[in-house]
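Obj: model holo form, ligand = iron/sulfur cluster.
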Amino acid sequence: MPTLKIDGKEITVEKGTSVLQAALDHGIDIPHYCYHPSLNIAGSCRLCLVEIERMPKLVPSCATQAADGMVVTTNSEKVDDARKSILEFLLINHPLDCPICDKAGECKLQDYTFQYGSAHSRFVEDKRRRATKDLGGNILLYRNRCVLCTRCVRFYEDVVGEPYLTVEHRGYHSDISIFPGKELTHKMTGNIVEICPVGCLIDKDFLFHSRVWNLAKTKSICPGCSTGCNMDIEHKDNKIYRIRSRENMTVNRHWLCDYGRYLYHQYDEMDRFTTPLKRTSDKLNKSGWDEARSIIHDRLALLKRSKEIGKMAVVGSAFASNEENYLLYKVFHDELGCDKFFVHQPAIEGEDEVFKGGFTIHTDKSPNQNGANLILGKKTDFWRAIKKGQIDILIFFGKDLALTLSDQQKELLKKLDFIVVFDHTLNDLAQHANVALPVTYFAEQDGSYLNAGMRLQKFQAALTPPDQVLPGWQILLSIYKAFNEDVKMVTVSDIMNDMSRNIKKLNGISFFKIGDEGVQIK
Amino acid sequence: MGVKNVTHKSRWIERFYIPAILSGLKITLKHMFQKKYTVQYPEEKWPVPPGHRGAIRLNKDEEGRVKCVACEMCATACPAKCISMEAGVAPWDDREKYPVWFKIDMLRCILCGMCEEACPEDAIQLTEIYDFSTYTRADLIWEKERLLKNYDITVDGKYFDRSREETGL
Ligand code: SF4
Ligand code: SF4
Ligand code: SF4
Ligand code: SF4
Ligand code: FES
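Output (holo structure tokens):
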């Protein structure tokens, strides 16, 4: 393993690491545009030039491997001078667009010019003007703002494996362009907006919606499929403005697919019920938490006394967090003695999509199938049990926005005696409920998921739920406490601790230990 | 520290009070013939010094459109956090971004002028208007329309020559 000195700091790195990455990993900032840890090296922007002892000229640190005994200087006068000149070149044709540019505030051209550039322009000639292009899909190309780092071009080549963009013409006339006949509607497209270091590639979905420094960030996990991509929810005034990827080199590296990126709109727009509902004759009417809880409690207490608990089925969900599924088990198994547990999961069709750079989009469109199976067991076919007449009472935890039922299934539900549903909307199943309870979706609650690769990851609440909506775990916890006064759990973290004591595979894991990048479960 | 008692014995002439009254009258008399500083507001208006920071206006461009591009620099710089707006795609061909709505809470504004300082477009300015008290609080939440109107009535520097009716405030 080579040991080198950067700005007087001794650093030991893996063989093959670039000088730039070595510096970045050790808190030394070298400005750069074209370099990106998940893309091939281009070495074209020349902003990362550094001085290395016994090398005659400045060298690009992104394209130079760290070697033993190297002595690197990143802040000498010569380096500063080179940086300044490169930035001045880039600014020659760059418009003064910051006030109307969505990238302002997180733009590398702004940052570097402020840090390393010059405060005054010597350029008196007219700037080159190029019209903004619509590249299809959600993408606008503000050609005037491009610094030609080719990150976007390489993203399609290296990560997606199918070229969409290219650099047209050469030298001064270079211009990012899309291959004829193509549109940027590819599933992975949203990522290029994130990796573009300037405001050249802009997302129409966010266009002018907010200045980026006004948004708060909350760490979350994408509920869009069992990949479980790490992401940041960016929100303001209890509303989500955009979703951006959060680096996790073992799960999603730097990427999100567009399905996950824009999924929050579906939750935003869903027609949800926001108070508990109870059935009177054939209609569902508004109720309150006290009443809903007492209806459920009375019914369950009766069941417990009559020893007919075998007639009850509890269906957890691959869309629910581990804590919610676990509490279902605690309440209905430990307290009431129910033994028929199932997991609701979406129908899985086709094959997982794996891209050139290794990123996978799973066909399992639920985030927590592994977690639900681990906690509740792998049974999914509760319809058969209903058909056989083994079930009178159904507790159903949904949260699946795509849930629909066949006519036959609807008929089967009519045979049941008592149905409790935890969900967001009055879907086909919730319509048949005796009591329907409004629960939060992923952005409104804390929790954890176990992804397809058995990685346990946590997500946090970004929004306050509307009206009387409550997190599923809170509702279950209060039902639990009504049956058992000794229950001391209060937070999601307490539930997680209890769970890791009782489930062998999760041994010793706590909410705190999961950290931002998750932990691997064997 | 001890307490020191001081006694003052008035002379008989002082106890007579007439000299004191006379000296007071003398000062009054002197001022009657001097230059007067009192401004007979509202018949007469206070002459505003240049650079006075009064009510805020939103400037217009040559074509009479709001000059603001909704960059939120003013809102970011404002120490009282009283500016809010929503940006949108401009309805004009030659401009991209504009404020769909723009609001200043003048109840909170401290007239510091930071917004004017921060604006990259010279779109927001403090004016000579100091007489903008209202009967209700709601009237001091100013929307884009009111702020643009402030521009119309101050742009020629003759705000104080206008009558109340003429300004329409
Ligand atoms: S559009 Fe952005 S990412 Fe692509 S080359 Fe230009 S600056 Fe780089
Ligand atoms: S791949 Fe799956 S987890 Fe990742 S962003 Fe897309 S839907 Fe979300
Ligand atoms: S004058 Fe000061 S307090 Fe008033 S809006 Fe401007 S920045 Fe805010
Ligand atoms: S700083 Fe100027 S241009 Fe920007 S939002 Fe405020 S008034 Fe408009
Ligand atoms: S980052 Fe090294 S040349 Fe661009």
